[in-house]
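Chapter review: from sequence to fold.
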Amino acid sequence: MGLALISTVIATRRRVLSAVGLVALLAVACGGSSGDSPGDSVEGTAGATPDSVSSASGSASDEEKPARQRSVLKPEIADISNWINSEPTTIEAETARGNVVLIDFWTYTCVNCIRTMPHLRAWQEKYGDRGLTIIGVHSPEFEFEKITKNVEEAIERLGVTWRVAQDNDMATWRKFGNRFWPAKYLFSVDDELVYSHFGEGEYAETEKQIREQLIAGGNDISDIPFEPLPGDVRDVAATKQTRELYGGYARAYSQQGVYNGHEEYYWGPDQVLDYTDDGERVEGQYFLMGLWGNREESIVHARQDPGLEDYLRVPFSARSVNIVIEPAGPEPFEVVVEIDGEPLTREQAGADIVWKNDGTTVLEVAESRLYAVLESPEFTQAELHFRSTSPNFAMFAFTFGIYLEGA
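The token string follows.
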């Protein structure tokens, strides 16, 4: 998931002159951003190539390198808040031990990052004791993702067994000039940045690069067949895909009329307003009924509502829908979910949907994370309604997918 949504995905392969040239390439690929603000979840729209930028380094003498490339420092892990599954380490320390290092920038509510996890698990299982060190740099998108307990629970839930560095201050993110979740950087045993990839996909190419560097570093992997996991397949019937939506004014106010479909939402931050939904269907926006509070990172239901009169409505085009929720209070609660006014069917329901005795479909919210709402067997254009009796219902983001399987 990312902070500034990109509606298309860069799909190009470039030969670059050196490790520092790769770092310089990042600034170009990211529109010249300074990298001080968190970046984008790379998710292609329907018809777009699912992968962003992949690069493999060549070689060149110092005389051949442009002056601006020579001036860029080699990126390194820096100012980590906490380490999980590991003692503190650095890229230089790992390569000095003869290891190839794969840096993976991620954050646990990013659906794009979650979709890469099966491939990371496979690489860890195959090569983790053959010279590959994976370091997941967890650079948070939301404040609640800085909490170690939340990250630890996500690591257990996602089956992350490799090293994880909590980059809460985004210091390592800035050292790399990174702009995307997920993003991968591969370092050789000579401590050279030899390959990078931004976004999902290119899993076979990434594994090929890993294997080449392991062999070059003197590791015997001849008994491990090159059998990459298949990548996600997009639905050719999907004519469009709803963009990622954010609940908080930190993003919405920078783009008037984007994300929230009500003019009064933009009157000022940190207000509780009584919204009226006129039923307009505008894809790429969400709509509200009842009392809601606009906060920096979320839109929060602002009252007890035993009659479930208030709601959040989202028109969408996708096969899958996910919602990022953080409880705004300590008590767990339920969110009633309907599609076009009806409960979700068993075939439509995402992994986090629960059925009540009366047939109602709900999300049971007790922790801050991404919840899988819809996993339709076919491309769907419809509307989702979310209702809760609780004032603790805080919506941070929606993500939408058009893959044949999964999120």
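Two observations follow directly from the output. The chain has eight helices and 22 strands. The mean pLDDT is 85.
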